[in-house]
Specification:
Length: about 220
């Protein structure tokens, strides 16, 4: 998936939008709070201040044309459910929604949401995966099929370039960011001819099965 619409900029929605933007994906954000939208507007492709339960706002924004729409407004169940219904009516391909609890999740599923996220459960699962693999700094599933991980450069990669490693062909993964050791900024796009060094961090995206294979491979190293 290459384009995402993030609706609702609480802590969950903001973190999600930032991660997707860092992964160089096309991102649309929608929230009725002007300050929240302005705070992240420079990072994303399109930022809209508006009411997501307003059919006209969603239609004008073109939200349903994005590969994936993520509804992050769990605090107001009515708004969450109504937004999901409107997106589905407008032809959204894939709708993911955050739920406040199990009852909210069941309602979202009944109105056609493709995937429901329960943050506490998901965070617990993600933390378990993160701490079970050496060298994993961050682990994030943002769809049923795709995972992003930030890892320390494996020993076998040190002194080699992305071209030499040929990870896309060998492991079916893509390295999208490279952060040098002791570097404070979030990371740079990858130079395929630059050699990796000990202590560097890389952000990798791929299908869940391929990321799991990579992490299993690292554990065995």
């Amino acid at each position: 998936m290459k384009s995402f619409c993030v609706i609702g900029l609480g802590r969950f929605g903001l973190a999600l939008a930032e991660m997707l933007a860092q992964a160089r994906r096309e991102v649309l954000i929608i929230d009725n709070d002007e300050k929240k939208v302005e705070a992240i507007a420079d990072m994303v492709d399109t930022a809209i201040i508006g009411d997501c339960t307003d059919e006209a706002v969603l239609r004008t924004s073109g939200a349903a044309d994005y590969d994936c729409c993520i509804i992050c407004i769990a605090e107001n169940i009515n708004d969450s459910v109504l937004t999901a219904i409107l997106l589905k009516e407008q032809g959204a391909k894939l709708v993911i929604a955050r739920a406040a609890d199990e009852r909210h999740a069941r309602v979202l599923e009944k109105v056609g949401v493709d995937r429901v996220v329960l943050p506490e459960s998901d965070i617990g699962r993600r933390l378990g995966r993160q701490i079970s693999y050496d060298g994993v700094q961050q682990y994030m599933e943002f769809s049923e099929d795709t995972t992003i991980v930030e890892i320390e450069v494996p020993q076998r990669w040190i002194g080699k370039t992305l071209i030499e490693l040929d990870l896309r062909k060998r492991l079916n993964i893509n390295v999208i960011l490279h952060k040098k050791k002791n570097e404070r900024k979030k990371g740079n796009s990858v130079d395929p001819q630059e050699k990796f060094a000990s202590g560097d961090l890389v952000t990798v995206i791929g299908e869940n099965k391929h990321i799991t294979h990579l992490l299993d491979h690292l554990c065995q190293s």
